[in-house]
Amino acid sequence: MKKIGFLSFGHWNPSPHSGTRSAADALLQSIDLAVAAEELGADGAYFRVHHFARQLASPFPLLAAVGARTSRIEIGTGVIDMRYENPLYMAEDAGAADLISGGRLQLGISRGSPEQVVDGFRYFGYEPTDGDHAAMARQHTEVFLEVLSGKGFAEPNPRPMFPNPPGLLRIEPHAPGLRDRIWWGAGSRATAEWTAEQGMNLMSSTLLTEDTGVPFHQLQAEQIQRFRDAWTAAGHEREPRVSVSRSVFPIVSDTDRAYFGRESASQDQVGIIDGGTARFGKTYAGEPDQLVRDLAEDEAVAAADTLLITVPNQLGVDYNAHVMESLLTHVAPELGWR
């Protein structure tokens, strides 16, 4: 069995060719797609976070709303850029959203990716020491993980407005178990090892910020194995989780063929991100029997317990629900995922 969810970037565009023309459309359709995915039997609804862009940004109101409208599906992010975050306020927001959902939050966090503006985190009031914004993201993460543990750290007012429990005070509301449901979006093998050392689950996307010349899925499978080896070496007691993202489009109708038929020839690509070489995974598009054969050869998909399907959200809720249903009906059972 494999958990299968969707990952939406939440794009919106006022163009008449877009089915998602405003920020309100992006938010409300995200909720509707999560509800539809749960009804179809999918396992997760995940949302990307970008600032200064016509995409989903602050995630917690959306996560709380999805939590209130659903009852079973996991709800998460992929990923929150920790360079922009106040870790204590984030812990309050995350705790509230997790409690509303009944403990179904799965938060993917990371250093983040290239953004729409230069050093956007500075506009949010965060100035990295010595210009090292990656280190700042990890520092924010360290604080976030620590306060999620629920340990008291703040000295109480001796004359408070309301009575306090004894001892140092913690961030409220506290969500038990949320610390074990934090994922780090790792773009390299070394970062995956660091993720394991911190006791976070691994979230790996459709790109890696390195290239060794081997196919993307093999490099990602090596990343996953290094993560698992580092997890074992760190001596953590629980079993970790690993997710990978893929673009998968079963072609079962003329509409599917019109949108994605040309993607059947997709291949890995190598490009440049942040001045370094990166390898991008291919899109999977084709008849269901061909997708079964292709996905069966994907070593990283086989190694992960969770598969997140990136969805073209501007094509609307109904079409994206159709994509999920096609995958769950025609592909997943043949691969033993259902």
Automatic annotation (TrEMBL):
GO terms for cellular component: cytosol. It comes from the Bacteria. Signal peptide: none annotated. Keywords: Monooxygenase, Oxidoreductase. Residues 9-258 form the Luciferase-like domain. PANTHER family: BLL6902 PROTEIN (PTHR30137:SF15), LUCIFERASE-LIKE MONOOXYGENASE (PTHR30137). This is Monooxygenase. It comes from Terrabacter aerolatus.
